[in-house]
Amino acid sequence: MGEEHFVETEKMKDVQEKLEELSKTHFVLVHGISGGGWCWYKIKSLMEISGYKVTCLDLKGAGIHPADRTTLISFDDYNEPLIDFLSSLPENEQVILVGHSAGGLSVTDATHRFPKKVRLAVYIAATMLRNGFVTEQDVKDGAPDLSEFGEPIDVYDMWFGLGPEQPPTSAVIKTSLQRKIVYQMSPLEDSTLAAMLLRPGPIQALKSARFKEGEGAEEVLRICIRTAYDRVVKPEQQDAMIKKWPPQNVYTLESDHSPFFSAPFLLFGLLIKAAASLWCSE
Asked: What is the pLDDT of residues 217-227, one digit of tens each?
């Protein structure tokens, strides 16, 4: 009995240590185009109540970031807040990096640059391309195609930061279409909030996203969370990117493009499950 009790006690200690380590996990949440750190408010609340550390970044020109988004044409410029944040972390600190939609490009960029600082990369309804938009197929797989809702001029409000004769530098889905396209399964109050806070996203900067393979980047674990009723990054696009660059795990949510609004508890559960799997595998 004494030996059995000792073994059980050691197991309990090991579990307790892993739980304590898990509670120290630092999640860094990256929004998609036109969004901001505000879009994670439900997930941030759930995580912090549960004892996790959470950082919700605003990329350049997004959320409350003061930059003029209509003149952003470089992806490196747009993603600078995330890169600066990771650069500022101590060498021995690792984070779980979570990207939604176009935020997947930011996650991939960061993983190539700082593979030792990214414990896990999570893509939610996201553009998950190993090298960014290099080929026409990459664009077909990873860029939203909203042509079923009309011509671009009917779907987007656009800004021409380089002049009226040049392609638009930023755009946002028209307020009248946002709920139909992005938030069709989300609570009305959340889509109303989004309509008040969304800002034009730097489409030229995102189109320029191309990444060099970073040494050690392929060793970073990746998880993909599919959104089954997504009208922005459609399920077949998500499946194509998964097939082309397979992650370690794929989960599916019965949600629209914005599960942080439409399925926050389920999304929170998957994120914690993903984090727990890291420590339990050690």
From this structure: 999 999 999 99
Strand partners of residue 227 = 253
Tokens 């990117």 — which residue?
241
Among 144, 122, 143, smallest CA distance to 134 is for 143
Cβ-based neighbours of 95, under 8 Å, separated by 6 or more: 26, 27, 28, 55, 86, 89, 117, 118, 119
Q: Is the pLDDT of residue 172 over 80?
A: yes
0.85 cut: is pTM over it? yes
Strand partners, 223: 122, 249
Tokens of 225: 């969370």
Catalytic residue among 31, 34, 58, 101: 101
Of 109, 138, 141, 230, the catalytic one is 230
pLDDT of residue 282: 53
Note if 58 is an active site residue.
no
Q: Is 208 a catalytic residue?
A: no
101 is known as an active-site residue = yes
Please tell me the predicted confidence (pLDDT) of residue 16: 57
Output the pLDDT for position 278.
Answer: 81
Q: Which of 31, 100, 112, 257 is catalytic?
A: 257
